[in-house]
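Attaching the record inline, Q. Sequence:
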Amino acid sequence: MTSQVSSPAEQADGAVVGEQRKPAGVKDVQRLDRVIIRFAGDSGDGMQLTGDRFTSETASFGNDLSTLPNFPAEIRAPAGTLPGVSSFQLHFADHDILTPGDAPNVLVAMNPAALKANIADVPRGAEIIVNTDEFTKRALQKVGYAASPLDDGSLDGYSLHPVPLTTLTVEALKDFGLTRKEAERSKNMFALGLLSWMYHRPTEGTEKFLKSKFAKKPEIAAANIAAFRAGWNFGETTEDFAVSYEVAPAATAFPTGTYRNISGNLALSYGLVAASQQADLPLFLGSYPITPASDILHELSKHKNFGVRTFQAEDEIAGIGAALGAAFGGSLAVTTTSGPGVALKSETIGLAVSLELPLLVLDIQRGGPSTGLPTKTEQADLLQAMFGRNGEAPVPIVAPCTPADCFDAAIEAARIALTYRTPVMLLSDGYLANGSEPWRIPDIDELPDLTVQFAQGPNHTLDDGTEVFWPYKRDPQTLARPWAVPGTPGLEHRIGGIEKQDGTGNISYDPANHDFMVRTRQAKIDGIDVPDLTVDDPHEARTLVLGWGSTFGPITAAVRRLRGSGESIAQAHLRHLNPFPRNLGAVLKRYDRVVIPEMNLGQLATLVRAKYLVDAHSYNQVNGMPFKAEQLATALKEAIDG
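Structure, as predicted:
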C-alpha cells in the first residue's frame, strides 16, 4: 500500500508541466509530475489488455499509480455501439496518489462510439488520439453523429491527433501472412507502442508478455510485437507528435521495500494464502463464478502447492455448503461471491453462526438490485451483510480501503474468524477488485501468528466426576467454542441448525436457553478486539468526513485539496463495521458536523445515526462509478461552510 503523504499536485486534475528539454536535437521532451490516460474502444478491441500492459510497465518503472477498468457486462456487446464501449483509465505520477483521476489528460478513442461515450469527461486542451479508419459513415450514424466530429469543428478545443491505426497496423504486418482481419486485431498493440513512446515506458516486459501469452502461436506473438514496435516507431518519426513526456519514478512516495503492481482481487487471493500459512491450516475455497469475484477463484486454483483446494460448485448454495463443511473439517474455509450470491448464501451463513465455525464470506460488491450492473461498482451490501439473515445472526464485517489493502483485510478477516469461531463478511467492491496500485510485499515476520489449537480431549467434568467433551463450552475471553475436528476420538457432537443447549450442544427448545444463546452469540461479536478508530485532524476541525471501503482514495484526495486551499477538515475511515471501534461514539461527538460519503443511499449513515444518535449527513452516489475527488471536495466545502 502506498504511503499517504500529501502533495501539491493532488490539488488539480491535469498533468503539471515541469521543465522541457530536447535530447540530441530531436523531439522535445516535457517533464510532468503526473498523467491520466484513458484507453477506450469496442469491447473486442483489447482495451483492458492494453491498459493492463501499460500499467505493468508503469509499475516496473517505479511510478505510483491507480487504475479504473470500466467495461460492459455483456460478453460481447454489439460492436460499435455506446453500450459496447470498454475503457481503462490509468493515473500515474512521480509522487503519492490516491485515485485513478477525475478526468483524462489523454484519450485514446478506437472508434466513434468510444469518442462519444468518453468526450464529456475530457477537459479542453487535453490530447485525443483517434483511429480515423473507424470513422466511417455507418459507424458515425450508429452512435448518432450527423457529421464526423473530426471535421465539424467540435473538437477544436482539444489537441487532436488523427491516426489511421488500423491501416498502419495492417501495413506493419503485411509480411506476416495474416489475413486483414487477423492483422487488424493487433491495432491495440500499435496504440500501446505509440503511448509507450509518448511517455517513455519500458518495452521489454510487454514483449516478454506477448511471447508468453502466444507461446503456442509464435506467429501471432511475432505479429503483436511487430505492431507494438511499429507504434513506437510511428511516434518517433511522425511530425504529428512533436513532444514526448517523462514522468519520473515516485522515489519518495514509498517506504523502502520490494513492490509490485496488484489488483484488489489478486491481493485478496494472496492474503488468503498467507493467512492459511500463518494459521498452518489448509485453505479451501467453495465458490460459484460471479462478476466481479471470479478472479479470486481463478487465482487460488493456481496455488495447490500451498495446500489450497478450490471447488467450483454448481451454484452459490453448494459453494458455501462445501466451504462450511471444510470449516467443520478443520480448514480455513472461504466462499467468494457478489451481492446476489450473498442473498442465496444467507441461510448457510446463518447455519455457520449457529454452528459457530470460522468461515470467510468475501462479497465483492456490484451494482444492484438483482442482476443490476454486474461490471460496475457499488457499496450497497452493507445492510445485507449486517442484517440479511433470519433470526438474530450477527457476523463481523471487515472492509478494505484500497486494492493493496485487500491483502491485509483478508488476513484480518481470517484472524477474527479463527479467534472467535464465527463467519466473517469481507466487503470489497468492483472498483477495488479490478483497480490496481503498487503493493509492498511484506516480510514473513510482519504477518500475524494465526495458529489455532483444535480440541484434543474432554473439557468438562460432570458432577459425578465423569470427564466429557462439551462442544459449546466457551473460552472466557473470546466466548469462542472449541473447534473439534471430526474423527477425533471422544469429541463426537451434534451439528445442525436447530438451537443448541449451552455447553452440551444438545438440541434445545427451552426458551431461556434460546435467549441465552442468542445474547451470547451477540456478545461474542460485540467483544471482538478491533483497533480504535484513528482520526486525521491536524487543525482541530469542526467537520469530520467518515468513510468506509473504497471511498478512502477519493475522500483522502478531496481532503488534501481542501486543506491545500486553507480549509480545516478531519478525516476518519472505518475498516471494522461490525463491531464498530469502541471509540467511534466519542469521536463522532467531538465534531459539529459529520459527513458520510457512500456509494449507496446512506447505509452506514443509517447505522451511525441509529447507534450513536448523531445527525450524520449523507453524501451519496449510485451510478456504478467511484466518486471523483473534485466532486467530493465541493460537497465537503459546502458542509464546512454550512
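The longest strand covers residues 34-42. The chain has a mean pLDDT of 94.

More tomorrow.
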